[in-house]
Design goal:
Elements: H1 2-16, H2 25-31, E1 35-41, H3 52-60, E2 65-71, E3 76-81, H4 84-95, E4 100-105, E5 108-111, H5 122-126, E6 153-155, E7 169-173, E8 178-182, E9 188-192, E10 201-205, E11 211-215, E12 220-223, E13 229-232, E14 245-249, E15 255-259, E16 265-267, E17 277-280, E18 290-294, H6 323-329, E19 337-343, E20 382-384, H7 398-407, E21 424-430, E22 437-439, H8 440-452, E23 457-460, E24 462-463, H9 469-480, E25 484-488, E26 511-517, E27 536-539, E28 543-547, E29 551-555, H10 558-575, H11 581-590, E30 593-594, E31 606-607, H12 610-617, E32 632-635, E33 644-652, E34 662-669, E35 674-682, E36 688-698, E37 703-712, E38 715-716, E39 724-726, E40 739-742, E41 752-760, E42 770-777, E43 780-789, E44 797-800, E45 806-810, E46 813-818, E47 826-843, E48 850-853, E49 856-859, E50 867-881, E51 890-897, E52 901-910, E53 915-922, E54 925-934, E55 953-955, E56 965-973, E57 985-991, E58 997-1005, E59 1015-1023, E60 1030-1036, E61 1046-1049, E62 1060-1063, E63 1073-1081, E64 1089-1098, E65 1101-1110, E66 1118-1125, E67 1131-1138, E68 1148-1151, ...
Parallel strand pairs: 6-18, 19-21, 19-23, 20-21, 23-25, 25-26, 26-27
Antiparallel strand pairs: 1-3, 1-4, 2-3, 5-22, 5-24, 7-18, 8-9, 10-11, 12-13, 14-15, 16-17, 28-29, 30-31, 32-33, 33-36, 34-35, 34-37, 37-38, 37-39, 40-41, 41-52, 42-43, 42-53, 44-47, 45-46, 46-51, 47-50, 47-51, 48-49, 48-50, 53-54, 55-56, 56-59, 57-58, 57-60, 60-61, 62-63, 63-66, 64-65, 64-67, ...
């Protein structure tokens, strides 16, 4: 256990120190894919300002902005920048704009799942264990695991018919197969083979973590001073220490009981067969007992197959949440509640979850249309904000696991049961990717969606990094809507009071922060804790739940504890639906079971308890909101801008206003739930009340209309009580159709037409709802023919490094090509789906340079081309990114949008005009931009076939490898309007790029037998002209050949293998690995070759792609560096790769031999392209590559100032040094310190603390790097440390300085805005870029003789936690009376016992939490009276002395 804690704490230290270290490739590349800024707009100063959507247009016009997305409900926008440099420049621009409240660099968060892999534990790793938390093949668990196997508990299966007890009882079976038997005379022995009332014991748990066993006679089992085991019948109710036992969980599923007073184990084998003793110091077979459980009448046990594995729901030792006891009272409601799981998504096909999913009632699954007009297509079960679509299917497993604990379907005979397994509807909101990471901006969007679509609470098992005011504001807005936010406390094993964890540490009163417990009743070793900042604890170690693919798995983490609390909150709310959010939170916190082992871990010092929560909920009185509602609501938009409304809202007051104080006007979502409030009017007795929407108000995403609700001091009535009016946005389209064409008449009669009007959609349909089609007669509009809906179409547009891309468009296929590229390129192509992207050439630096197409990320050299990606309907992006290191040959892809045309079928009708006109419209308002198309009447008796008869498709692939020669089969699929008596055949010919026939080759084809039958024409080997670009097929009738045809690109197949290839020989002496250079001589005919692919082959099969090397112009030889696994009999194969198709199978085979040396290299590097093909953990597991954590030596600690000593700031303001609101961060300056040898100890080197002048200079530079007129006295350098190098070697001549600093606000208004700006700037500094470079330059200018590098940690803005009944601090209201069930007792044990193991490691009081430290004295803080005259009191530390 100590090892686990140590590893986790050191890992935390590594993360928090912000030491500049190399980042693993995939993670680095993933985080670099986009540079984002979250913009918060000012909204509360009473001034008329343009709406957010209008401001977004201005943002997109700024140089460096790729695109911007408005979040009107939150008064925010998310901006995508073209590069990190562009982001820095944009931050400076936005910082100076008057209406921008704050510009915040986006941040990253992670799923809060504990590191349960064996690779995290060196002891387990040394034995070659893999997977989750160390189970070996013989079922032995090691002590390094946080949670060994859960003890086995069996339902009574003796075959006897036994009366069910009122309460749950257990029986203890010994190694003999007999059971503990408590006689009425006080003796305790063994009763063979049969269970009866004398073998039954009730378990009584105690706050100190022990249990007592009460017999059927009401007497406690006791270990007597003599070592005998007996039962004592006494009048006292509570057990004393003689009657208490510690539970020891054995690795084979049994348990052993150790007497608290005697400190010895209960044994069944050292005395006579009829008696037991408490006499053994160690555990053998005789000290092991199997637990048999018989649930009582006070429980409700579902029949789920794996329910016995859910110790968090039901644990014989009472370490659970008493779920089965709570279900006896209430297990859910058919009315239900919507709970949003903001995570990696949910596998909504899982058998235990598919019936528990929320279903969007206004969305039609799979039709590719945004039916409810909330901006997301096919969001049936939620939405995916990581990939910008409506499918939140889990591609990781974390979210699915959490969902199963919340609401896995109970009593269905399979799997598991969630805490609230009946009535909860799970809304899946994915913002974490398959890698487990995600953007803060996407989390903001997910939370906004949850509010709009009606979720009452959210479960948030994620966090990490620093704070972000954007996330805080989003949580606060959700709180105003009555939403509960349950959040994981984190897995760093640190104190959240000292080292904040976000989002659980935000101050919002709606947050419940959750720590994790084990089935021993203790705090999980990985769990964060905090007596002021963590609220409750819940089971989180070894939690069994659902994972994707219909499977189940145990995971550990505060991520697993959080869904227990979320499920309990949902259960309470279903039990008492009218309770307010703060009441539900209050109940969760007040109903915990207090445990001494959890003292100091949270505000409540306890574990949640479902039964106590329901009992307490029954005592609460629901808020008395108005029962009388306004009678009507009217509103008409008068603003012509799309998405913007203005006008007057008229509310007709309630007939009876006796319980009404005011009326609120809210946006209401398309799902029918209240969103942001537009304003309120007081109830004055006047029948008609008016609310004027001054200026322009943006329509929030997912908003459908307005609702008026009545309110009073207790709150507001629900949306169902008041009137709702749908807002018809009066808007004028900003653009129209690009063109209109007639697809040809297929009615062969004169004066009659039938066919399709083809509309080329507007470049951007953002302001278009549909297209209207009319007959056009003599310069006037004729009859209405029909309308075609818009689909949100957007033509491809590129932002960022677009000038380096070769772009073209032919026949609505967009071609993008990047030749050998450069460093630091970032281009984003935005468009709408459905679309098909075909990659024909791809070679990049693996992990660091990539194309991201939708959710598919392509990188490296082993992408088999051509490779197609199908993208669904809705907004899509393709992102190209290269880093600042190596470059490669580049890539080519083709983008084809599949719905660029909108078609209006025209049934057979008599021709009354020769022209149609098409006009774009937004609801009832049409654009002034009109497009026209001529309607040509086709008369089959006198005219050749019209365009309606051309083939719907033509396919041809050349099979002749010779240049300028073709051979193959032309496949013709006739038009849907094919009529056999009109089309009598087809002519096939060659054409150039302009469509003109070239050469004399000509082929004929017979007509199709029916519309679905393809016509095939075989073409023998034929020479073709060099300018031939396509094959054209035209229909023929009795009258003649049509003027229209269908073409297919003519791709001349040329195939030529490499001329030769040689291998330099293996230089890797490790058996089973080869390393060396492969020299390739280009093909004799290099035409069309884009690369050469290198495979490892075994004979003619088992091809393993090792990588590609780009083809070069000329005859220069190419050198491919390889390092790969090798097996006897394998060879290398080199083949040519063509843009026009897959690599040819034939190539050059090269024989290789494995050179083996005398020594074996452990964990040797492997060519990155071969790792995925043959992974051998015995060679490459990461624990074999030892690394040491950084070593810190504390240099100084800044003591608290006295109020009398606070400096005056600008304009006479006084710095608020006693404020609980501040921003914390850490600065590491490499090379800042110097070291010296202590006198008399030449071998011991120590870093010299910076002088007072150097500290003042650092403080001044920090103040200058932060925003506004920040006074240097507002920056406090709280602690300073010396940092050894990454290998933990002795300090050299130049040592890194690590500074924990705080930024404090001044007294007075504007503190929050000031802290938010400081936080945003530190985020920017922590991400590098211009701001960090400027700071580093200023630092180097002050210390020119030193070679300095600076690295900022992420900010941590802290503030007093908000409680339910109070506005400051996180304190509970008066404790409500609960029935005394005897399950808990008070005790005075402090947190010291819990942290004893941590104390042995040596704790350093720093923002990073615990870290390894050198020998130093622990110094007591001075009192405020002692430093009353000092501006700062610095304790200077070395390894063995301190001076002040």
């Amino acid at each position: 256990m100590v090892l686990v804690v140590l590893l986790m704490l050191l890992a935390t230290c590594n993360q928090q120190l912000a030491v500049s270290q190399s980042i693993d490739g995939p993670r680095k590349a993933y985080e670099q894919r986009e540079s984002r800024i979250i913009v918060r707009y000012a909204h509360s100063d009473g001034r008329e300002r343009p709406p957010v959507k209008e401001r977004v247009k201005h943002l997109e016009a700024i140089q460096g902005v790729v695109r911007a997305e408005a979040l009107p409900h939150l008064d925010m926008a998310v901006v995508i920048c073209d590069s990190e440099m562009g982001k820095d420049s944009l931050l400076e621009v936005l910082d100076g704009q008057e209406d921008v409240e704050l510009a915040i660099p986006d941040t990253w968060v992670q799923a809060d799942v504990a590191s349960g892999n064996c690779s995290a534990h060196s002891k387990c790793a040394a034995l070659g264990l893999h997977g989750q938390c160390c189970p070996t093949s013989d079922r032995v668990f090691l002590s390094c695991c946080d949670t060994p196997k859960s003890p086995t508990s069996h339902e009574s299966d003796s075959g006897q018919v036994m009366e069910r007890s009122k309460t749950t009882i257990i029986s203890l079976e010994t190694i003999h197969g007999s059971f503990l038997h408590a006689h009425s005379n006080g003796k305790v022995g063994m009763h063979y083979s049969k269970l009866n009332v004398h073998t039954h014991f009730n378990v009584v748990s105690h706050t100190d973590g022990t249990i007592s066993l009460k017999s059927h006679h009401g007497a406690y089992l006791v270990g007597e001073p003599t070592g005998s085991l007996a039962t004592w019948t006494r009048p006292r109710v509570e057990a004393d220490d003689w009657e208490k036992f510690h539970i020891h969980y054995n690795n084979d599923g049994t348990v052993s009981l150790r007497s608290k007073s005697l400190d010895r184990y209960m044994s069944a084998g050292k005395r006579s067969a009829s008696e037991l003793s408490v006499s053994e110091d160690e555990i053998g077979d005789w000290e092991k007992f199997t637990i048999h459980v018989q649930h009582g009448e006070d429980t409700s046990i579902p029949n789920d197959a794996n329910f016995s594995k859910l110790w968090g729901m039901d644990h014989w030792g009472d370490r659970d949440i008493d779920a089965v006891e709570a279900w006896k009272k209430f297990n859910g409601s058919s009315q239900g509640i919507v709970l949003a799981v903001i995570d990696t998504g949910i596998d909504y096909t899982h058998p235990d979850l598919k019936d528990q999913m929320w279903v969007n009632p206004n969305e039609i699954p799979g039709n590719g249309i945004d039916d409810d007009q909330n901006g997301i297509v096919d969001d049936v079960h939620g939405a995916d904000f990581a990939n910008n679509d409506g499918d939140p299917l889990d591609d990781q497993m974390h979210g699915t696991h959490c969902a199963g604990t919340i609401a896995g379907k109970g009593n269905n005979g399979i799997g598991v049961a969630g805490v609230a397994w009946q009535g909860v509807r799970l809304m899946a909101l994915k913002f974490l990717s398959a890698e487990g990471g995600g953007r803060t901006s996407d989390a903001v969007k997910a939370l906004n969606y949850a509010v709009a679509m009606g979720a009452r609470l959210t479960s948030n098992s994620w966090g990490g990094g620093g704070s972000s005011s954007a996330m805080r504001v989003a949580i606060e807005r959700a709180e105003r809507a009555g939403m509960l936010f349950v959040a994981a406390a984190g897995n760093e094993g640190s104190n959240n009071d000292e080292t904040p964890h976000f989002p659980s540490n935000y101050a919002s009163a709606s947050i419940i922060s959750v720590a994790s417990t084990t089935f021993k009743g203790t705090l999980s070793s990985f769990s964060c804790y905090g007596a002021k900042t963590v609220d409750v604890a819940a089971p989180g170690s070894a939690i069994y739940s659902t994972v994707p693919g219909g499977k189940y798995r145990s995971l550990s983490g505060t991520s697993m504890a959080t869904p227990h609390v979320s499920g309990l909150a949902a259960l309470i709310w279903m039990y008492r639906p009218k309770l307010a959010m703060q009441q539900v939170k209050d109940i969760v916190m007040k109903s915990v079971v207090v445990q001494d082992t959890l003292k100091g871990s949270s505000l409540t010092n306890g574990r949640i308890n479902a039964l106590r929560a329901l009992e307490l909920a029954s005592t609460y009185e629901a808020p008395k909101v108005p029962s009388h509602a306004p009678r009507s609501l009217e509103f008409h938009d008068v603003n012509p801008a799309v998405g913007i409304v203005s006008g007057t809202v008229t509310v007709t007051a309630a007939a009876d206003e006796s319980d009404v104080d005011f009326y609120s006007v809210h946006w209401v979502s398309s799902a029918g739930f209240l969103m942001g409030r537009l304003g309120q009017v007081n109830a004055t007795g006047t029948q008609s009340l008016v609310l004027t929407l001054n200026g322009s108000v943006a329509v929030p995403m997912m908003a459908k209309g307005l609702a008026a609700v009545a309110g009073n001091a207790d709150g507001e009535a629900g949306v169902e009580s008041g009137p709702i009016v749908e807002v018809e946005d009066y808007g004028v389209p900003e653009s129209g159709a690009q063109g209109v064409s007639w697809a040809g008449d297929f009615d062969g009669r004169a004066s009659f037409v039938a066919g399709t009007v083809q509309i080329k959609r507007a470049r951007n349909e953002r302001t278009i709802s549909h297209y209207n089609v009319y007959w056009h007669q003599q310069a006037s509009r004729g009859n209405f023919l029909g309308k075609v809906p818009s689909i949100g179409f957007l033509e491809p547009s590129c932002s960022g490094s677009c000038d380096v891309l070769n772009q073209s468009n032919a026949n609505n296929v967009y071609n993008f090509h990047r030749d050998p590229y450069s460093n630091n390129e970032l281009a984003v192509i935005s468009f709408s789906g459905p679309a098909r992207v075909t990659i024909t050439h791809f070679i990049t630096e693996k992990d660091y340079d990539f194309l991201e197409i939708g959710s598919r990320k392509l990188t490296g050299q082993n992408v088999e081309v051509p490779f197609a990606v199908e993208l669904p309907a809705g907004p899509q992006t393709i992102t190209w990114s290269s880093d600042s290191s190596e470059t490669e040959a580049g890539w080519t892809f083709h983008l084809q949008q599949l719905s660029y045309e909108a078609n209006l079928p025209l049934p057979v009708t008599q021709l009354n005009a020769s022209t149609v006109e098409v006009v774009a419209a937004y609801h009832g308002t049409e654009s002034l931009d009109v497009q026209y198309a001529e309607i040509v009447d086709f008369d089959a008796s006198s005219m050749p076939p019209s365009q309606a008869f051309v083939p719907s498709s033509v396919q041809f692939k050349d099979a002749d490898p010779a240049e300028h020669s073709i051979r193959g089969v032309v496949k013709i699929l006739p038009a849907r309007s094919h009529v056999s008596d009109i089309v009598i055949g087809y002519r096939i010919f060659l054409a150039d790029l302009q469509g003109r026939q070239v050469g004399t080759l000509d082929w004929k084809a017979s007509p199709a037998k029916h519309v679905d039958a393809a016509v095939q024409v075989e073409i023998a080997s034929s020479s073709v002209p060099s300018d031939a670009a396509s094959l054209v097929v035209r229909p023929i009738s009795q009258v003649g050949e049509s003027l229209f045809g269908t073409s297919v690109e003519l791709v001349d197949l040329i195939r030529s293998a490499p001329a030769a290839a040689t291998f330099s020989g293996d230089v890797d002496l490790v058996e089973g690995q080869i390393e060396g250079n492969l020299t390739i001589q280009p093909a004799a005919n290099p035409t069309g070759i884009i690369a050469y692919a290198v495979y490892m082959v075994n004979g003619t099969h088992d091809r393993i792609l090792l990588g590609r090397i780009a083809a070069m112009t000329g005859d220069a030889f190419l050198v491919f560096r390889l390092h790969a696994y090798f097996e006897t009999g394998q060879n290398l194969l080199v083949v040519s790769v063509y843009a026009s198709g897959p690599a040819i199978k034939e190539g050059i085979q090269v024989q290789v031999q494995d050179a083996v040396g005398k020594t074996r290299r452990m964990g040797g590097s492997v060519h990155p392209e071969s790792q995925q093909h043959d992974f051998r953990p015995t060679d490459l597991e990461p624990w074999l590559q030892k690394s040491r954590a950084p070593v810190l030596e504390t240099l100084w600690t800044l003591q608290q100032r006295s109020r009398a000593a606070l400096p005056l700031l600008k304009a006479g303001a006084v710095m608020n040094d006693f404020s609980d609101a501040k921003v914390l961060s850490r600065l590491t300056v490499h090379g800042f310190l110097r070291s010296s040898k202590l006198q008399g100890n030449a071998a011991d080197q120590h870093a010299l603390p910076p002088t007072a002048e150097e500290r003042d200079l650092l403080r001044t530079l920090l103040a200058q790097a932060l925003p506004g007129s920040l006074h240097s006295e507002q920056v406090l350098l709280r602690r300073g440390h010396a940092l050894a190098d990454a290998a933990g070697e002795a300090f050299g001549q130049a040592v890194s300085l690590v500074v924990d600093f705080e930024v404090l606000p001044a007294f007075g208004p504007g503190q929050q805005a000031f802290l938010d700006r400081v936080e945003a700037r530190i985020i920017q500094l922590s991400q590098g870029g211009h701001a960090a470079s400027r700071f580093e330059a200023a630092l180097s200018a002050q210390f020119p003789e030193r070679h300095l590098q600076a690295k900022f940690g992420e900010p941590q803005q802290v503030a007093p936690k908000m409680g339910g009944a109070v506005s400051h601090g996180r304190w509970l209201a008066a404790e409500a009376e609960l029935p005394d069930d005897g399950s808990s007792e008070q005790s005075g044990v402090t947190l010291a016992s819990l942290l004893a193991v941590l104390g042995s490691l040596g704790a350093v009081g720093s923002i990073a939490g615990f870290a390894a430290k050198r020998q130093q004295k622990v110094l007591q803080s001075t009192t405020p009276e002692q430093d009353v005259d000092a501006l700062e009191s610095i304790v200077i530390c070395t390894s063995d002395h301190a001076s002040e």
